[in-house]
Design a protein that fits this description.
The chain is an all-alpha fold. The chain is 75% helix and 0% strand. It starts with 12 loop residues before the first helix and ends with a helix. It is found in: Membrane.
Length: 557
């Protein structure tokens, strides 16, 4: 590896600490790449993220000091709105596919000579692959960028949707559905990451609300569309429509969405041997990498809160045809599909308010802290809805349906209100994933999505047997208790999240510093023949990233 002769070597404490605090699977690689990679990028003020050079901060005692950053002004407001719209449309596709077949379950079962429970098992499998997908695509997007991964997964989703429409037997139907789930979830994950790339923390909640409208409207409008289609046509037409929508998404991504990532990690490997590159890439795209973030208790609790929301969504939507049809004597899939419009309209209304509410909460607490932003403050906006509104709606729905009281209006109203409530919770939790570890937003979000979609899989799989065993009322009571427990967990993250992060960072630094410092020092001496000074005033990786982003922004203003 030849050092960059066009840059002057300036080793410092922050540079050495980045060697010491690199992630578990990238310890050796980050130590090896410091001499060339850091110097190559240290003069580019627009670079941000865990691999960018970060000058020493002015706010040593305040790692969360809010400052502007020109990196968020690269694109015009109109271009940002277009990106949000296209990403939201693509995020609609995979969740819509996960539920559109619900209205046609009996028809699909009849085609393949099986039972509705088996077809619902395919929906559970769909959710499993939605959960696995983010831990693969998240790290890859950090390495190769958002755009190539988005385009590749969009094309594959299009082809797999076409294959599902043509599936000749049940096995092919299962395989193509699962594979399309694996590709489609990338839209949700990378759409969120794109918003973190182009919007400031105080703007992300509003943008996230608009983006999530697609991801959340999909599960509720999917059965409605499926009900219309299966009433007048074959269930296969559901997947022909999905294929057409996927093709539209491919075109939108190709022509309207540019690369948004601030820094591709693949650029750090220039000048490496083929063996070193291979070793580095394996570490960078390791799917276990995002899951290691669960050593942070705040991440665990926020993931549990997100999981409660997804559990509630799919455990409510999955059994509607089986639960409400016999109680209200609904005879066609179209009439059943109308019930799905209630939460869908709630999601749509929540789009206009939920994200703005989260951003407003952040600004209020910044003012209370005299200009200091703490990521956990955003979570405050979700607590009243997770702890009060959502449990109340779930209990009302469960027991009125169980006891057959209130008629059709009561479940429609509470389904609408819980849809609104979810859009007041999701933007807060999703945006927190982008805020809490700058430069690792895709990996944090991937870990969160991994847990939440496995919860959705569990809800989809157990809801029908549970309702048959204990009834709708008691099942929804359990769901309400899950929500209350999750709200308590979110409050704990608000109260102790910052302390937990600092404690975990300190343990990481203590465990990794001796070995990594030795590796990095030996390599730098061998390659540069320059003595590397011992680090001073060491900072953890999270602090370096956060400080550096703020200081870089301050320099450019």
């Amino acid at each position: 590896m030849v050092p960059d002769k066009g840059r002057r070597e300036r080793p410092d404490a922050a540079k050495q600490q980045r060697q010491d605090d690199s992630n578990d699977d990238g310890d050796t690689i980050r130590s090896l790449r410091q001499t060339t990679a850091v110097d190559a990028y240290r003069s580019a003020s627009h670079v941000s993220g865990p691999d960018a050079f970060h000058p020493p901060p002015d706010h040593e005692d305040d790692p969360y000091h809010e400052a502007g950053d020109e990196v968020y002004d690269r694109l015009s407001p109109l271009r940002k709105h277009i990106i949000v719209a296209v990403c939201s449309f693509c995020a609609f596709l995979s969740p819509q596919s996960s539920t559109s077949v619900l209205a046609a379950t009996p028809e699909v079962a009849a085609t393949y000579h099986t039972t509705g429970s088996i077809i619902n098992a395919s929906n559970a499998g769909y959710m499993v692959f939605m959960g696995i997908s983010p831990v693969v695509w998240g790290p890859m997007s950090q390495v190769f960028g958002r755009r190539p991964i988005l385009l590749m997964t969009a094309v594959l989703f299009f082809l797999l949707s076409l294959a599902t429409a043509l599936a000749p037997n049940l096995a092919a139907f299962f395989v193509f559905r699962a594979a399309s789930a694996f590709e489609g979830t990338a839209f949700i994950l990378l759409g969120s990451a794109c918003l973190g790339d182009i919007y400031r923390p105080t703007e992300r909640g509003t943008a996230m609300g608009w983006f999530l409208s697609g991801a959340l409207i999909g599960p509720s409008f999917g059965p409605f569309l499926g009900g219309i289609i299966v009433t007048y046509s074959s269930w296969r037409s559901i997947f022909w429509l999905q294929t057409a929508l996927a093709g539209t998404g491919v075109l939108g991504l190709f022509f309207l969405v540019p690369e948004t990532i601030h820094h591709k990690k693949i650029a750090d490997l220039e000048g490496y041997s083929r063996r070193e590159k291979s070793k580095a890439l394996l570490g960078m795209i390791n799917p276990i990498r995002p899951l290691r973030l669960f050593r942070y208790w705040n991440q665990v609790l926020v993931a549990c809160g997100s999981s409660a929301l997804i559990w509630n969504m799919y455990s409510l939507l999955t059994p509607i045809r089986y639960v409400l049809n016999p109680r209200f004597h609904l005879e066609t899939p179209l009439l059943t599909g109308l019930f799905y419009l209630a939460p869908g309209c709630g999601y749509l209304l929540g789009t206009f308010m939920g994200g703005r509410w989260a951003d407003r909460t952040v600004r209020v607490w910044i003012n209370k802290r005299n200009g200091v932003r703490v990521p956990e403050d955003r979570l405050r906006s979700a607590v009243p809805f997770m702890g009060l509104l959502m449990p109340a709606c779930i209990l009302t729905y469960g027991w009125t349906v169980d006891k057959a009281v209130g008629g059709i209006p009561v479940p429609v109203i509470v389904l609408f209100l819980q849809g609104v409530g979810q859009l007041f919770c999701f933007p807060s939790l999703n945006t927190y994933c982008l805020d809490v570890m700058p430069g690792q937003g895709a990996e944090v979000t991937a870990a969160n999505y991994f847990v939440r979609y496995l919860a959705g899989c569990l809800g989809t799989a157990v809801v029908l047997p549970a309702i048959e065993g204990i009834g709708v009322g008691w099942f929804e009571t359990i769901s309400a208790l899950i929500f209350v427990a999750s709200a308590v967990g979110i409050m704990a993250a608000i109260r102790w999240g910052e302390a937990w992060r600092k404690s975990t960072d300190a343990k990481k630094a203590t465990n990794k510093t001796p070995r990594n410092a030795q590796i990095g020092t030996q390599h730098q001496r061998r390659e540069t023949n320059t003595a590397v000074p011992e680090p001073e005033d060491e900072m953890t990786e999270t602090q370096v990233e956060t400080h550096g982003r703020e200081k870089t922004a301050g320099i450019t203003q």
